[in-house]
Each structure stands twice: as C-alpha cells, then as structure tokens.
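Listing 4. Sequential folding, example run.
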Amino acid sequence: MAPAAIVIILAVLEYIVFGILVGRARGRYGIKAPATTGHDVFERYFRVHQNTAETLIAFIPAISLFALFLNPNWAAWIGLVYIIGRIVYFRAYVADPAKRSAGYGLSIFPILVLLIGGLIGAIRNL
C-alpha cells in the first residue's frame, strides 16, 4: 500500500500547490477575496484548482481500492499518470482553455482504470 499512499500524498500536494498558484494569481490580477471572477487568467487558475478538487474526490478512493484489491505498485504507476495529467491540464488550461483536452484525458483515464480495477478486484475477493 505504501507506493499508492505516496502517490496519494503527491496528488494532494499538487492540489495544494495549485491553490498557492491561485492565491498568487489573485494578487497578480487584483482579485480580492471572496471574489472568484474578475480577470480571465485568474479565473483559469481558479477553475483548474476547482476541477482538480473534483477529480481528487474520485481519484483517492479509486487508487486506494485498486491498491488494496489488486496491486499497490500498479496503482502507484497509474496514479502517477493522473498527477502528470493534472500538470498538463493546468498548463494547457491557463494558456488556452480550448487546449485542455489532453490533460483532461490523462487525468480521467487513470481514474477510470483505477475504478474498474478496484471494482474487479473487490468482486474477485468476495
């Protein structure tokens, strides 16, 4: 379970870093809290952070179940693809939201693989 736990920690740290970058963008573009709109680039940072929170809700249980019922090493490798996908998504979305598809795919596909694998593993362990 340790390899998957390390990747979960890295994913949460990535989310925290994205939050810090939102804060920096808030200052750079003069967006006073609690506002979440006001400058297009700030809104992109904000949306990436929010979208990452939305995917973490599925990612953490998915990687945990895959690691528990199938293989923690494979769970970690698949989880790393998710983390890389989030970075690709972040960079693309901030630059041009229309080009976020590759990063989104690299984020969602690993979650689906982990969920399906976790389900299969759980069923096999009945």
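-- end of first protein; second protein begins --
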Amino acid sequence: MVCLVLFGCADKKVQEQSLRDSVVSIHEKVMGEDGKLEDGKTALDAFVKANPNSTLTDSARFYINKLTLADSAMMIWMHDFNPDLTTKPHEENMAYLGKQKKLVMQIDSQINAALDASTKFIAKTKTK
C-alpha cells in the first residue's frame, strides 16, 4: 500500500513537472522573438522620424503600439508566473499550469501576429 501511495505521489510530480516544462518551453520560444520585437519597433520608429508628414506615419505608430503591447504582455506574464509548485495540492498545480500554458500560448499568438503585421508594413514602406 505504501508503495502505491509513493508511486502515486511521484507520478503526480512527474505530471506537474512535465506541464511546467511545457509552459517554460513555450516561454523560451516566445522570448526568442524579443529581438525581433525590438528590431521592428526600431525600424518603425526610424520610419516615423524620417517621414513625419507621411500618410503612413499613423500606421507605423499603430504597429509600434502592437509590438509594444505584445512585448508588455510577455513581461507581465513573466512577472506574474510562479514556477514554485511545492506549496499547493496537485490539482491546484495542474489547473494553474494549464491556465499559464494557455496564457503564454495566447501571448505567443499575439507576438506572432504583431510581428507578421509589422514586418509586412515595413516591407511595404521600403518598396515605396
């Protein structure tokens, strides 16, 4: 009986660690986009400064804002994420990690959408 309880506890910890690793893996992938966010903001800011009276300046500012919001969402998530799973019961840990995985995946989508849209805009402005 004691073996079953010990293996059950070990299995729960393995489940938690696996889900936690999945969340951290997504986070690391998203953080790999940080340089692209900064590069996009820099390129758009340079466009705004070089073309203050362009009809496209408001659009450039819009894309700067999209990139900034996506970056901020990641920073807020990182600040709020608590990887310590030692004080809560298994069910709470699994629910928390499931929610965090969903959040970080949404942020990944937000970042990808902002990068895609701003990259297309930057390419369009360079061809004009």
